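hey so u asked for the seq, here:
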Amino acid sequence: MFFLGRFEDSSRQLEQGIAWDEATAAASERRAHVLLHAESPGVICRLHLSCIHWLLGFPDRALATVEAGLALAEALAHPLSLAFSLVYAAIIHLWRKESQMAQTRAEAAVSEARRYSLAQFLAMGTMCRGAALVHLGRPEEGLAELHAGLADFHRTNSKTFDPMWLGFTAEAQATRNSRAPSVS
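ran it, structure tokens below
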């Protein structure tokens, strides 16, 4: 539903997923079994819900929801969920034009992904860091990271959110071009 743009339906399903995850938290062995095979459902539901909040015009709810997902991932000490949540937190901060915080979250994602050999999240964190660097006045360095991250991301055979990554890259290119000296 989320990737089809059916945000209201998706919100309801994601909230049900969060409720299910919270209910299973009491039965820790069941949650541990899920974490052996995948990301934490409670984390992932919160991350996608944060994007929906942003897309529906609720930036503060988006931030609170992504931070809740990140806090859960940290409490679980689950590397895949933590890398995933750090990337989404960086994205929300980028959308909110909070470049320094986006860079901080992206660097943490890169570190976590590198530590556990999570190639997709390493690439995503690199792209987020690149986008943040552009907004922090370092367009050349940021653009290089965006290009490197996108190439690495595509080597994982993923195209998820390509329009967003390409949008960040186009914005970086435009920023770089606007800072270039004009020729008269």
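The first helix runs from residue 7 to 25. The mean pLDDT is 90.
lmk if thats what u needed
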